[in-house]
Structure formats: structure tokens, C-alpha cells
Automatic annotation (TrEMBL):
UniProt-listed SUPFAM superfamilies: CheY-like
CDD domains according to UniProt: trans_reg_C
PANTHER family reported for this sequence: REGULATOR OF RPOS, TRANSCRIPTIONAL REGULATORY PROTEIN CUTR
Residue ranges annotated for the OmpR/PhoB-type domain, each copy included: 131-229
Entry GO CC: cytosol; protein-DNA complex
MF (Gene Ontology): phosphorelay response regulator activity; transcription cis-regulatory region binding
Source organism of this protein record: Amycolatopsis rubida
A GO BP annotation: regulation of DNA-templated transcription
Pfam families: Response_reg, Trans_reg_C
Name under which the protein is recorded: DNA-binding response regulator, OmpR family, contains REC and winged-helix (WHTH) domain
């Protein structure tokens, strides 16, 4: 299955100006960016496993960046994390790296350096960096075993159905267009049309309905499809 090529970045910072600047700059670098303003929201988003890298400020309201990182690693979320802080002491950096951070940026930093670090982390992680499980409420998509479970109950999916759900849950909280799904799931197959996407979304939705997970997959008329739940709706 082809992947949607844009890296997905989560920016967690309590300064509105920083969030806006990073969102604008990283989008200009052809990255898909989601932002959060506090620790609990950042944790809720990051624990879905649907991001390629997290830019995580240390000083956050509600839950510090250290604690967010600590909980992510305790829950076996392996998404690369770059810590961002005004603290430049060796002990601070060592503490962050010991908790499982993949890098440490000191404010104020050069945006060019930040982008270079993000790209370096993505290269080190490789094309299969996101092969860990995706989690959305009680739904778990195991990308290594290619299995889907809802509240512990297996949801049997065909390879194409799995690919479609993997893309949607991998972009949880974000609308994915039919064209994006075509490229990601069917690649360059010339005979495939947008109507086939609708057909397969219907197949997946019926199987999710059968286990009580039908509300996860939604149609956003005129735009595409969205995977989300009530908790994610709230933080997004």
C-alpha cells in the first residue's frame, strides 16, 4: 500500500504565536500539521500513534512535556519526539533524552535547524516508522499484524479494507479526500474511480457497525471521510 506522502507533525506548545508560526512554516515544507495548546490535549492526540513526529514543549499547562513523554513511552507509543525548551542546561537535556526523547531544541531556535532536525528524525525512523498500533478510543489498528480490534473483538477486514481504515485512522481527526484515499490504497491502478472508494468505505462501515464501532467512520459531504470519536472531537 502506498502512503500519503506528507509527514504528519503534532506541535504541542502553549504559546499561540509559536504554534501559528510552526504550523505555517511546516505546512510550507509540505507537512501536515496539528497543534495542541496544553499537555493533556497533546497527550490525547499523541497517544493515537497517528503522527510521524511530535514537537513537544516542556513547560505546558496541565501536564509538563516531560510527563507527556513519560506517559507516551509507558504506553508503548514509539512516535519520535523532539523536546522544545527555553532551558539549555545539560541536565535538562539529559533528563529529556533519558525519558525517550529523540532530540532536544533550545528556544529561541532557528526554523531551518528545526526543519532539519524533523527531517533527520523522519529519515532515521525510516518508511516503516509508523508501523506501531494506531488507537482511536476502543479501536486498535495493528499495522504490523494487519489486524483490527474493537474493544478486544476482532474486526475481519480484507487487505483493501484494512488499507483504507489504516489511512483514515492514521489521519485521525483530519478529513481525507477520495483522491488521497485512491492514491494511498490503490496507487496508480488506472481502472479505479472515486466510486470505488465509496463502495469500500461502505464495506468498512458495515463491519464496524457490526461490532458497535460505526460512529468512528464519518462522511464529510463534499470533502471526504473522517475517523474520529467523541474524545478526539473535543480536543480537536
Amino acid at each position: 500500500m502506498m502512503r500519503i506522502v506528507k509527514p504528519r507533525v503534532l506541535v504541542v506548545d502553549d504559546e499561540p504565536g509559536v504554534r501559528k508560526a510552526l504550523q505555517r512554516g511546516l505546512r510550507a515544507e509540505d507537512m501536515d500539521v496539528v497543534t495542541a495548546a496544553d499537555g493533556p490535549t497533546g497527550l490525547q492526540l499523541a497517544r493515537t500513534g497517528s503522527f510521524d513526529v511530535v514537537l513537544l514543549d516542556i513547560m505546558l499547562p496541565g501536564l509538563s512535556g516531560y510527563r507527556v513523554l513519560e506517559r507516551l513511552r509507558a504506553e508503548n507509543v514509539t512516535t519520535p519526539v523532539l523536546l522544545v525548551s527555553a532551558k539549555d542546561g545539560e541536565i535538562d537535556q539529559a533528563d529529556g533524552l533519558d525519558l525517550g526523547a529523540d532530540g532536544y531544541l533550545v528556544k529561541p531556535f532557528s526554523f531551518v535547524v528545526l526543519v532539519a532536525q524533523v527531517r533527520a528524525v523522519l529519515r532515521r525512523a525510516g518508511p516503516d516508522a509508523s508501523r506501531g498500533a494506531l488507537k482511536l478510543g476502543a479501536l486498535e489498528v495493528d499495522r504490523a499484524l494487519r489486524q483490527v480490534h474493537w474493544d478486544g473483538r476482532e474486526v475481519p477486514l480484507s487487505p483493501r479494507e484494512f488499507g483504507l481504515l489504516e489511512v483514515l485512522v492514521g489521519r485521525a481527526g483530519t478529513v481525507v479526500t477520495k483522491d488521497e484515499l485512491l492514491r494511498a490504497v490503490w496507487g496508480e491502478e488506472q481502472a479505479v474511480t472515486r466510486n470505488l472508494v465509496e463502495v469500500y468505505v461502505g464495506y468498512v462501515r458495515r463491519k464496524l457497525d457490526a461490532v458497535g464501532a460505526g460512529s468512528i467512520l464519518r462522511t464529510v459531504r463534499g470533502h471526504g471521510y473522517l475517523a474520529s470519536d467523541d474524545q478526539l472531537d473535543e480536543v480537536m
